[in-house]
Amino acid sequence: MGLAGSLVTCRSWNQVPMPHHDTFIDRNLALDVVRVTEASALAASLLVGRGDEQAADEAAAKWMHRTLNSLAIEGAIVIGEQGSELLQAGQRVGGGGPKLDIALDPLEGTTITAKGGENALSVVAMAQNGSFFSAPDIYMDKIAIGPNLPTTLLDLDAGPRENLKRLAEAKGVPVVELLVCILDRPRHTELIHQVREAGARIMLISDGDISGIIAASQPQSGVDVYMGIGGAPEGVLAAAALRCVGGQMQARLHLRNDEDKARAARHGIHDLHRKYGLEDLVGGDVMFAATGVTNGALVRGVRRFKGGAFTHSVVMRSRTGTVRWIESHHDFRRKSFGMQGEG
């Protein structure tokens, strides 16, 4: 899939000055990364509200794999799709070029997509070899906030009430003004109770903790902090985005049984109680891209019309602090996706 037949509009801001020379990841790779998430988002968008999670996930994975293989990189997938024939960890992608590790989720929010809900995304992060924490496919307890706050402000061991008190003091607001994003799951019943007892507001989301964590870094989202237990691989992807915008995150593996412990051991993890900071989860020069499948706090969803579609994406880079929002117009007379054909 090429960018021929697309009109691209970019808006960007920088947290730090742009350096004179890019020493590792070529800045032109930004559009290549977006091509990957655009392709998978467009494919998945044809199945929004159709009630078939597996079909939507498979369509997104197929087109993400296809587009990754068109890039001039030598990519190794380190965070991938568990059980996928195309995108599982350990697979190689790309047509040759710089060696990069890849973390991905072709469709974050399969249930959201199947039901036509909000915040479904296609996500990819790329970095130098060895930059990503090798996360087993188990749960992870996470707490995340945005930039411009004191370092090591929050601590998983402090508990919700103390963390909300600290965050409110750092922001100069009462706790009642804080908005906490939490996945709507039975496992969070006690967490929700404690947050309400502390006096904070709550935004429950049905799925998609990557978008929930990123929302905590975006002022326009209204979210002050993300709390709760979600997937460990998704935690690494969210950490990649936070590394780019300067947010904070602390995480710890949530082990439910001996099988979870065995999975952690297979990934070389022996300290099962360790708390991981942002730099532990993602290091080096990382580039992150996400394209909306459905509308959400971070990006808008795919908007289809006769003969084409609009996509809305965000691309971030940790070394420069640049964040770009990209709106692309895709002309299906020149290229196609999924059910549209194999162009």
Radius of gyration: 19 Å
Residue runs with pLDDT of under 50 for 5 or more positions: 1-5, 12-24, 338-343
Distance between the termini: 8 Å
- What best-fitting shape do the alpha-carbon axes yield? globular
The averaged pLDDT comes out at 89
Structure, explained:
By secondary structure, this protein is of the alpha+beta class. The chain is about 30% helix and about 30% strand.
Features:
28% strand; 9-stranded mixed beta sheet; 343 residues; alpha+beta; 6-stranded mixed beta sheet; 15 strands; disordered C terminus
Short description:
The protein is α+β, with helices and mostly antiparallel strands. The chain has helices spanning 29-45, 53-68, 110-115, 160-171, 189-198, 209-215, 232-245, 258-266, 278-281, and strands spanning 6-14, 74-79, 92-93, 99-108, 121-127, 139-145, 179-183, 201-205, 225-231, 248-254, 276-277, 286-292, 303-305, 308-317, 322-331. The strands form two sheets. Strands 1, 2, 3, 4, 5, 12, 13, 14 and 15 form a nine-stranded mixed β-sheet that branches.
